Amino acid sequence: MDIFYNLIKSLIILIYWLLIANITYRILIKRRSIPSSMSWLLTIYIIPFIGIVIWFFFGEFYLEKRQKKIANKIWSISNKYLNQLKSYKYIFQIKNSEVATSLFQLCKHRQGISGIKNNNITLLTNTQKIIKILIRDIYLARKNIEMVFYIWKPGGVADDVASALIHSAKRGVHCRLMLDSAGSIEFFRSPWVKIMKRSGIEVVEALKVNFFRIFTRRIDLRQHRKIIIIDNYISYSGSMNLVDPFLFKKSSGIGQWIDLMTRIEGPIATTIGIIYSCDWEIETGYKILPKLPNKEMFKKKLNHNSSIQVIASGPGFPKNMIHQALLTAIYSARKELTMTTPYLVPSDDLLHAICTAAQRGVKVSIIIPLYHDSILVKWASRVFFSELLEAGVKIYQFKKGLLHSKSILIDQQLSLIGTVNLDMRSLWLNFEITLVIDDSKFSHNLEITQKEYINNSQLLDKNIWSMRAYWTRILEKIFYFLSPLL
């Protein structure tokens, strides 16, 4: 009997070390950042068995086999559509402002098209007003409505949007709704799913979370985009989830979530529609590429002084594109750089770029929430404060709710608005979207909004920060160690 137990014990130990060796090989063979590789190696070697489980769930698998197969070819298929779109030369901007030129050239060479002009862009900063305008657009829709959100939480004004969508579907508007399985778990447990489907709305649960799927892909890969497309002409995107701000996470005590959205009329809806069609095909296997622009429609209200690029990330899309775009934008700054983000856990390259901007004389400000919904990210972000403050970056902590806006304003001309947080998950993993807007009028409106945020914030004092308790510094370092995994 002892021989049998010893044999089993030896076999378990052998399997364990074979798994460790296999994971070590996989970490080393794939060129990751050194901090990320070191974090994974320390995790699997220091935490027996648990480290292997963490790697299995979060370390390597991205999409299921079927989805991965579609994702691997999805952008090349879309490029054929983009080539057709290029024939509509009247929608493309030839020349950009000085600060925007480098970033728009990057987007053109990596994504295949130039910036899109002839759009009317509106910055929306109040969730209640955003919902009111959206409901109006839904009721006025004639042909199609496409939506994708990370979170749709039933209740309050979110139910008003659902009712409007159902009404439009019943009168013949083709409606598609794609929601992240984890973020919208309350929605998928509500009666709204059956009600919507009965009215003719196509409802898709993206990246489904269940026990069996955790063995086939990363469970923390999420559909984080927020997109609305109406009649292939009106489009919305930004940081807002489909929730009632008076009801969402009310028990957390952090106050209302503060968001930004853009509402755009014009041909940019076509390029955003390409991204939506890619997501839809990855999830369902069906292709729904948008119709090419209607020349007569886009002759209306032309705006020749601005252009927009759309950057998408996630499996199947140009690799590291958003990270490259952020770096290019920051290095393009000459006078002023203002950033808002709820989650500040930048890569080493981004941290270096931000600090370098401040050190070469650019006025750099970062606005983050004082109160946070994520303890892990809150503590992990604190470790970056000292380096940023030493470089001359001003850090403002917003006091009136959870600042959920994701925005960058450069030299009062170039704006980046979207779903991307300055953390590892947004930069390297999730399905995200960012609008790059070269428009002085829009940027002026964004500047006004950011100044309002600053007026409702407290400035972090470098001297006071340097005197914080020693135990907090230790805690910050512990969470910093986990930051490549966040």
What can you see in these coordinates?
This protein has 486 residues and is α/β, with parallel strands linked by helices. It folds into three domains: 2-58; 65-97 and 113-309, Endonuclease Chain A (Endonuclease, Chain A); 321-485, Endonuclease Chain A (Endonuclease, Chain A, 2-Layer Sandwich). 44% of the residues lie in helices and 17% in strands. It has 18 helices and 17 strands. It has helices spanning 2-29, 34-46, 50-58, 65-85, 101-111, 127-140, 157-170, 185-188, 192-198, 268-284, 321-332, 348-359, 375-382, 385-391, 424-428, 440-455, 462-466, 470-482, and strands at residues 120-124, 144-149, 174-180, 202-206, 227-230, 234-238, 257-258, 261-265, 307-313, 336-340, 363-369, 394-398, 402-403, 407-410, 414-418, 432-438, 457-459. Strands 9-16-15-14-10-11-12-17 form an eight-stranded mixed β-sheet, sandwiched between helices. Helix 6 (127-140) packs parallel to helix 7 and helix 13 packs across helix 18 (470-482). Belongs to the phospholipase D family. Cardiolipin synthase subfamily. ClsA sub-subfamily. This is Cardiolipin synthase A. It catalyses: 2 a 1,2-diacyl-sn-glycero-3-phospho-(1'-sn-glycerol) = a cardiolipin + glycerol. Its EC number is 2.7.8.-. It is a multi-pass membrane protein.
How would you summarize this macromolecular structure in one to three sentences?
By secondary structure, this protein is an alpha/beta fold. It is built from 18 helices and 17 strands. Strand 14 (407-410) and strand 15 (414-418) form a beta hairpin.
